[in-house]
TrEMBL record:
Organism: Celeribacter marinus
The UniProt record lists the keyword Nucleotide-binding: yes
Keywords of the record: ATP-binding, Cell membrane, Membrane, Nucleotide-binding, Transport
Gene Ontology cellular component annotations, sorted alphabetically: ATP-binding cassette (ABC) transporter complex, substrate-binding subunit-containing
GO MF annotation: an example: ATP binding
Protein name: Glycerol-3-phosphate ABC transporter, ATP-binding protein UgpC
Family: Belongs to the ABC transporter superfamily.
Length: 361
């Protein structure tokens, strides 16, 4: 297990990068705690796999250092870093049995035969492949082969880190849930440092102790699922986390008052007079549809019943706003206003969160 330090780390695929736009991975300075489970979350092309490949040694960074337990491993090959990596698509030895595939990393390091037998049996039970241990991998389905890849990545207990690059892409939905649960259980049992790359927020939020949200080559926030939901530090985090994501509306803000579409709303806290591109962010869970004269005027466009609750799509001066209503709530045509719970309001300037200056008395 290892603490992983990213020191002034950046990477460009161009030979002579001249500006920030030339970097696929912009400058990072982070310490990732020994023994924690992290998820790298973001849309395609945001730099997740680039960062993972630098940590594993498959890619050498354009600048900066990568340290394991304060030891500089920047120039060390993958074989010297003592990590296990599982890729998006299955990598297995087709001519070997499932048992031999799982045992290979241990045999390669000269482990005791009895330990190998016991450990392989344990991992096979974890990935649900006890009945196929003696079958050749060649005839198995893609999701079964990926389970072998996962198992082979997890079979060693002495690794510095376990790295997963979207490993559940080819796994069926029910098995995805089971394997995520098993990975989490493995982490609690053995305390490996785990880094899990995904664009799926459900995978990230259910797997990780800390979620590292990336956007345009940057880490825009690292925090617990609760922190990402309640206080997104960047509008992308608010948009990307949640289903549907945070409502983001253009506004002007002075003190404890915001003006949106010509209407004033109270914020409950003071924010000074932020300048630049000012926006208000409110999650649909903190947005309420009502009738009367109080709130922002809207028009209901459609109602989507998703079982546990309703998602009401409304139009606010040409901008779509999402409202979460209870499963048993009645949505009537005269509901023409929305109000925001001040507890759920965040203010943003040039996409970054503005901290409140204090409660308004």
């Amino acid at each position: 297990m290892a603490k992983i330090t990213l020191d002034n780390l950046a990477h460009s695929y161009l030979p002579n990068p001249k500006s920030d736009d030339d970097y696929a991975l912009k400058e990072l300075n982070h310490d990732w705690v020994d023994g924690e489970a992290y998820a790298l979350l973001g849309s395609s092309g945001c730099g997740k796999s680039t960062l993972l490949n630098i940590i594993s040694g498959l890619l050498h960074p354009s600048q900066g250092r990568i340290l394991f337990n304060d030891r500089d491993v920047t120039n060390e090959p993958t074989t010297q870093r003592n990590i296990a990596q599982v890729f998006q698509f299955p990598v297995v030895y087709d001519t070997m049995t499932v048992r031999d595939n799982l045992a290979f990393p241990l045999r390669n390091r000269g482990a005791d035969p009895q330990y190998i037998q016991d450990r392989v049996q344990q991992i096979a039970a974890m990935i649900g492949m006890e009945a196929t241990l003696n079958k050749k991998a060649r005839g198995l389905t893609a999701d079964a082969k990926q389970k072998i890849s996962l198992g082979r990545g997890m079979v060693r207990e002495d690794v510095n880190a376990l790295l997963f690059d979207e490993p559940l892409t080819v796994i069926d939905p029910h098995m995805k849930w089971e394997l995520r649960t098993q990975l989490k259980s493995l982490h609690h049992e053995f305390g490996h440092t785990m880094i899990y790359v995904t664009h799926d927020q459900t995978e990230a939020l259910t797997f990780a102790d800390k979620v590292v949200v990336m956007y345009d080559g940057r880490v825009v926030q690292m925090g617990t699922p609760q922190e990402l939901f309640e206080t997104p530090q960047h509008t992308f985090v608010g948009y990307f986390i949640g289903s549907p994501g945070m409502n983001v509306l253009n506004a002007s803000v002075t003190g404890d008052t915001a003006v949106i579409a010509g209407q004033e709303i109270k914020l409950g806290k003071g924010y000074g007079t932020p300048s630049g591109k000012v926006e208000i962010g409110v999650r649909p869970e903190f947005t309420q549809l009502t009738a009367g004269d109080t709130g922002l005027p809207v028009t209901i466009k459609r109602v989507e019943d998703v079982g546990r609750h309703k998602i009401v799509r409304v139009d606010l001066n040409g901008t779509e706003v999402n409202v979460i209503a209870g499963e048993g709530d009645t949505i009537s045509p005269d509901m023409n206003r929305i109000i925001f719970d001040p507890v759920g309001i965040n203010i943003y300037c040039d996409s970054w969160r503005v901290p409140p200056q204090g409660d308004v008395t």
